[in-house]
Write a structure and sequence with these properties.
The protein folds into 3 domains: 117 residues, 3-Layer(aba) Sandwich (D-Maltodextrin-Binding Protein, domain 2), CATH 3.40.190.10; 87 residues, 3-Layer(aba) Sandwich (D-Maltodextrin-Binding Protein, domain 2), CATH 3.40.190.10; 67 residues, Alpha-Beta Plaits (2-Layer Sandwich). β7, α4 and β8 form a beta-alpha-beta unit. The chain is flat and about 80 Å long. It is built from 8 helices and 15 strands. The chain has a 6-stranded mixed sheet. A 5-stranded mixed sheet has the order 8-7-9-6-10. It is an alpha/beta fold and 286 residues long. The structure holds phosphoribosyl ATP (PRT) and zinc ion. The site of zinc ion has 3 residues, from loops.
């Protein structure tokens, strides 16, 4: 049986670079010729289809592709029969309601009987229904932010990242209705052979994600502060401790998590560590 999987990625847009970087960081070689619709990897059983992001959920549902990378916003809006197989952590953004800057906003009842322009009618409808608000949803496919200024709508529901598009169009964000990041979606009925390939790919992706969240730390410490420093370094198992030329000192190596990085560095320094070096980890296999 065929174990080669087919991955659909965005042809050109905000997800393209992140998607192909992820693949390359997984050690997969692919020549991505500009304008091509298909490509094959030379060292992993995977091929690529380059498509518009909106078409990807349907292609994965219909088995044209086995997996795809899209924004979670598109996954949720399209409502196709596909599964989210992994969250990828890039292209983070939010879907928000925004109104003219000068308007007074109290709460969601502001939108009762208003006209809202959006490219995400399903997500917006579900959100408003949950709040008991009835509004007139105008579906438009692009340049949503200009709708209020040309009299097409009272408000917009659009993707926001930095907020500068809303700002330059005289709008302000008042409610966030959905938070999104890039996700990998998959066909719900993949063969065992393809699942095996997918698992190999996910294993590589997870080791990259773990590495990104951790740093390798090297430091020098006087022997009598080793216990105190060890207690501050959870590491993968326990820290590596090596002798230095000066027999009163040792070198300690460990792995620390990005989340509490600065607090940990300060505590370690306070416990007597010197010459602390922190270096990125490329891959981490536990
Ligand atoms: O051509 P194709 O259909 O494939 O691409 P597209 O134009 O539909 O999508 P694209 O490339 O714009 O976005 C792909 C995905 O990237 C989206 O589905 C989101 O998941 C994610 N993403 C992340 C964003 C943004 N950030 C983003 N800022 N998608 C769109 N925007 C737009 C937004 O629509 C608005 O116009 O950028 C503007 C807002 O940005 P700020 O920084 O000014 O707030
Ligand atoms: Zn699109």
């Amino acid at each position: 049986m065929e174990n080669k999987i087919r991955l659909a990625v965005q042809k050109s847009g905000r997800l393209s670079e992140g998607s192909m970087k992820l693949i390359r960081d997984c050690g997969i070689n692919v020549s991505n010729g500009i304008g091509k619709l298909k490509a094959v990897a030379s060292n992993f059983p995977i091929e690529f289809l380059f498509l518009r992001d909106d078409d990807i959920p349907g292609y994965v549902q219909d088995n044209i592709a086995d997996i795809g990378i899209i924004g979670e916003n598109v996954f949720a809006e399209k409502q196709k029969e596909v599964a989210v197989v992994h969250r990828l952590g890039f292209s983070r953004c939010r879907l928000s309601l925004a109104i003219p800057k000068t308007a007074k906003y109290s709460d969601i009842s502001y939108f009762q009987d208003s006209a809202i322009a959006t490219s995400y009618p399903n997500l917006l409808r579900t959100y408003l229904e949950g709040k008991g608000v009835k509004a007139d949803i105008h579906e438009i496919s692009g340049s949503v932010e200009i709708a209020p200024s040309i009299g097409l709508a009272d408000a917009v529901c659009d993707i926001v990242s930095s907020g500068s598009t809303l700002f330059t169009n005289g709008l302000k964000e008042v409610e966030t209705i959905f938070r999104s990041e890039a996700v990998m979606i998959g066909n719900k009925e993949m063969s065992a052979e393809k699942k095996e390939t997918l698992n190999q790919l996910l294993f590589r992706i997870e080791s990259l994600q773990k590495a990104k969240n951790n740093k390798y730390i090297l430091l020098n410490a006087p022997k009598d502060s080793v216990d105190a420093i060890k207690a501050l370094l959870p590491g993968m198992k326990s820290p590596t401790i090596m002798p230095l030329a000066d027999e009163n000192w040792v070198s300690i190596h460990s792995v620390i998590n990005e989340n509490d990085f600065w607090a940990q560095i300060e505590a370690i320094k306070g416990a007597g560590a010197q010459g602390i070096l922190v270096v990125p980890i490329e891959k981490m296999v536990l």
